[in-house]
Amino acid sequence: MFPPITLEILVLALGFILLLAESFSSSSSKRSLAKIAIFCLGWVFAFSFFTDAAPALPEPGSFWNFYSADPVSMVFKRIALLTTMGVLLMALEYEPVLAANIPSARQGAGTGEFFVLPLFTCAGLMLLASAVDLVMAFAALELVTISFYVMVAYMRRSHASLEAGVKYLILGALSTGFFVYGITWIFGLTGETHFAKIAVKLASLHGSDPAILFALALVLVGLGFKVAAVPFQGWVPDVYQGAPTPVTAFLSVGSKSAGFLLLLRVLEPFLGVASIAPKVLLVLTILAGATLVFGNLAALPQNNFKRLLAYSSIGHAGYLLMAVACVGAAPSAFGSVGSTVGFYLFAYLLMTLLSFLVLTVVSKHSKGEEIQHFNGLSKRSPWLAFGLLVSMSSLAGVPLTAGFYGKFLVFAQAVNAHHWGLLTLGTITVGAGFYFYLRVVAAMYWNEPTESSPIELTTLTKITVGALVAGILFFGVNPKPVLSALQQQTAPTTVSIH
To answer: What element of type H or E holds 39?
Structure first.
């Protein structure tokens, strides 16, 4: 058994080693970097099952005061590792498009950093999942965000990518400012930055409710940007459409996963204050309802598949916020809010990575990302069409898929908390989701192909599509392995949501 921080150290060391290897490599092709990274991350993922828990009673001033290795955070670390492996695989498929949009003297030169930067993003996401201190959370969040700043604007010959990079940079810096200002207010009120100590100090404050609410509001603005909650979602459609497709997948899954875990950790101290807990839950309920309606209804008229997935991402953030709004209620018969959010994000990882992988391959062969480019895909590549069929079905919430069980858990939490308004909105928006997701399925199986050339797949892509399809179907029927990992008993220092 090894300390859990070993995982982050291994990922960071791998990133630095590959970055040095890329700098001194004379080869113009950098594909080997991505393959090495995928192989090594697979070993780190396996290694994660042999790590020990953080000390139950850390010494004063110890690093463990900033770091938690409870079962929930370990699941989120594994989500970050799997997401990064999937993104690197997509980057291999996307390399011809990437190389064509990077000014360089040699074909393939300039793509090396694109294969290495996701490793630093992964390390930041893993640290963010374990952060139980606001300072640690901010440092990890900045590691993630700065990496994304570079990757979003990586295609320097693409005006869309540069525009996306500028928008993400400006709005990201603005949200960071709100988050830091919120941390400042919290520290000013409590004199602490550790979540558990903040909870104790907030519970003892009297007559400071407006100041507490203002501090939480500032933090929620910063985190609302990360999870794409309304009204902080304005950057999502343009950034998702303009960024390289693998980066869009990373933004959709990785950033959202860590953001929601951090949101749960931040909320717990404030919900311990009886006088403000109802106000906080009311704000979360309004955010969830607005995000549900905007994300799903705005996706209805979209004809660009990448933009459709962007609005879909906002809609799924609404379902997750719907679960978070139930955090003050007693645990339902199906588990806690934390386990519900964890399983939903795991399911979202599988179906979103599969959707973006198919999009990457199809757009490379069809030179476009419109839904019409998926016309007749079942004839050009039956395996890709079947993979996208399973993915779209899971995103819509068809029974016997992981996406259905994730939505079922969210609705169970809402029923348990008597959020009938959110349940009504959730039911309506699920119906809207069936329409825009199944539009893509209809194009693949009912429309004639616009191009007759078949799509050839690499062995690695075929295996990955098969693994993601199997995961969606297996965990839709048997979700127990993931839920058991999320519901294990935790150490006394662990921050858990009940």
So the answer is: helix 31-47
Percent pLDDT > 70 in the chain is 89
Instruction: Tell whether the model's pLDDT for residue 493 goes beyond 50.
Output: no
Q: What is the pLDDT of residues 433-461, one digit of tens each?
A: 888 898 889 888 888 877 777 888 888 88
* Amino acid code (one letter) for 252: S
CB 244 within 8 A of CB 161: yes
Q: Dihedral, CA atoms, 276, 280, 283, 289, nearest 10 degrees? A: -140
Say if residues 330 and 470 touch (Cβ distance below 8 Å). Answer: no
Burial 258-284 (b: 16+ CB within 10 A, else e): bbbbbbbbbbbbbbebeebeeebbeeb
Q: Over the Cα atoms of the chain, what is R_g? A: 22
CA distance 364 to 383: 16
Cα-Cα end-to-end distance for the chain: 29
H/E run at residue 367? none
Distances (CA, A) of 59 to 63, 65, 379, 493: 9, 8, 63, 12
Per-residue buried b or exposed e for 416-426, using 16+ beta carbons within 10 Å of the residue's own CB: bbebeebbebb
Q: With beta carbons less than 8 A apart as the criterion, state whether 184 and 484 touch.
A: no
pLDDT tens-digit series, residues 389-403: 999 999 998 898 999
Confidence at 238, pLDDT banded by 50, 70, 90: confident
422: phi then psi, degrees, rounded to nearest 5: -65, -35
- Cα dihedral 50, 52, 53, 57, rounded to 10, equals 180
Arithmetic mean of pLDDT over the chain: 83
Contacts of 271 (CB under 8 A, 6+ apart): 277, 280, 281, 327, 328
- When pLDDT is averaged across residues 189-201 and rounded to a whole number, the result is 84
Tell me the two tokens of residue 259.
């953001």
Distance CA 208, CA 187 (A): 14
Residue with tokens 């709004």: 325
Of the candidate ranges 253-257, 280-284, 343-347, 404-408, the one whose mean pLDDT is the lowest: 253-257
Instruction: Identify the sign of the CA torsion 236, 238, 241, 244.
Output: negative
Query: Domain map of the chain by residue range?
Result: 5-486
Q: In which band, very low, low, confident or very high, does the pLDDT at 34 lie, cut at 50, 70 and 90?
A: confident
Report the residue count for the chain.
498
Residues 6+ apart with CB under 8 A from 397: 403, 404, 407, 430, 433, 434
